[in-house]
Specification:
428 residues; Alpha-Beta Plaits; elongated; alpha+beta; single chain
Length: 428
């Protein structure tokens, strides 16, 4: 439930009360007061979230109406006291006008916004440079990418070209500041090779698109739900939106300084994929919850802008996914390595000379021109009945694994290191 304070010229307070009653207002009060230049009526109204927009629309017909909307939930209790529990459990979604106005408020100050983007660049650089994973989580909390991404979705749902342009500008400006910060730090401290965490974080999975779709839906749900209707904090959903934005931004900056353009490409791919995926799922959810191109105190939305923005998002998303799956394995390395590991285990089992102890398959840090290097380190234990030497077993398994991986069409150069482990000579 929301509280509104309405100021109207004296004599119009009764009209406000009538409108509030038609919207099931609770705990209504009218006060006589003195305004800056005339006598006024002040009316305090409590209405449910879903009634706010309709209530504001009807107030528009009153002369010189001033409205103060308090954007926090209130509990309007009424007699009998025994019904208090039932009166406070009816928690509703925010009204569309609240969602839109909160989005407009968040595109204000640039100084603090850019400062957070720069600090996020520092933190993500330290995390990637020192292989400290928890610092990447800290960077996700600091990075101010969630606000512009969600405002882009609000602007798309509303068909607001002005807000859409401002949101995209803030999104790419924040990314540029974070990237530039990481790039500058790598140059100043003379970083020469990518770290293992950089390499791991730069690898893209075939299901990478699912994260921004889920993040966009979670972010939109957090904005439309009343603050008392969910146990999930805004910081948590904001971190989810920024989860795959801060690390790729840092990687783009650091890899640019190192001249590792393959990592730069994968990072830029992820950044664009996040924006498109978040905008697609969040804008559709906003429309589902009532955001439209026209509303109370909002007349600049256009259906053509909504349709165009949504179509362009879908086209961009489809183009990115087409690029991803047609450029294998560069933008599918995480998933390819996992699949290749399963194929390595199959190959060892088919040869039959030894039992698999452990296998590790990954794309290497080395950037060898003309090949996608896939390193497989395999540990096996010879079967009791096998009499061949360790060298023979290693050679047979190496050849079998390489041949099997090449036949599977992974488009890689498999480098295989087989280690034959021996059991203790005298087991108790």
């Amino acid at each position: 439930m929301r509280q509104l304070i309405i100021q109207v010229p004296q004599g119009h307070g009764k009209a406000v009360l009538d409108i509030a009653n038609s919207h099931n207002g609770a705990n209504l009060a009218q006060l006589a007061a003195k305004g800056s230049d005339e006598a006024i009526d002040v009316v305090i109204v409590h209405v449910s979230n879903r009634e706010v927009e309709g209530f504001l629309e009807q107030l528009q017909d009153l002369p010189k109406v001033h409205i103060t909307l308090i954007p926090t939930g209130v509990m309007a209790l009424q007699p009998p006291a025994s019904e208090a529990p039932q009166q406070v459990v009816n928690v509703e979604e925010r009204s569309p006008i609240e969602i839109f106005l909160s989005g407009l408020q968040s595109v204000g100050s640039w100084r603090g916004f850019l400062a957070y983007a720069a600090v996020a660049g520092f933190v993500v650089w330290i995390g990637l440079y020192t292989n400290t994973a928890y610092l990447l989580v800290a960077a996700m909390l600091i990075a101010p990418f969630a606000g512009p991404a969600m405002n882009t979705a609000i602007a798309t749902a509303r068909g607001d070209r002005q807000l859409l342009g401002r949101s995209l500008l803030r999104y790419f400006t924040a990314l540029a500041v974070t990237i530039a910060t990481a790039w500058l730090l790598s140059l100043i401290l003379r970083q020469e090779i990518p770290t293992s965490l950089m390499l791991e974080s730069s690898q893209v999975s075939t299901v990478a698109v699912l994260l921004p779709l889920a993040a966009g839906a979670a972010g939109a749900l957090n904005l439309v739900q009343s603050e008392r209707s969910s146990l999930v904090s805004g910081a948590a959903t904001g971190m989810l939106v920024a989860a795959s934005l801060a690390p790729p931004a840092g990687i783009v900056g650091m890899a640019s300084a190192l001249g590792r353009w393959d990592m730069v490409i994968s990072g830029l791919f992820l950044l664009l994929l996040q924006l498109c995926g978040i905008n697609f799922s969040a804008s559709l959810l906003f429309r589902l919850y009532g955001l439209s191109t026209q509303g109370t105190r909002y007349q600049r939305g256009k259906k053509s802008v909504f349709r165009s923005a949504l179509v362009m998002t879908v086209i961009a998303l489809a183009g990115l996914l087409t690029w991803q799956f047609s450029n294998s394995p560069n933008l599918e390395r995480s998933s390819r390595a996992q699949r290749a590991n399963a194929e390595v285990q199959k190959a060892v089992k088919q040869v039959g000379f030894a039992q698999l102890v452990e296998s590790n398959v990954r794309f290497t840090r080395a950037n060898i021109e003309g090949q996608n290097t896939l390193l497989s380190v395999v540990y096996v234990q010879r079967l009791p009945e096998v009499t061949e030497s360790s060298e023979e077993i290693r050679d047979r398994l190496t050849q079998a694994i390489q041949t099997h991986l090449l036949k599977q069409g992974f488009n890689v150069t498999p480098l295989v290191d087989v280690n034959v482990l021996e059991t203790p000579a005298n087991k108790p």
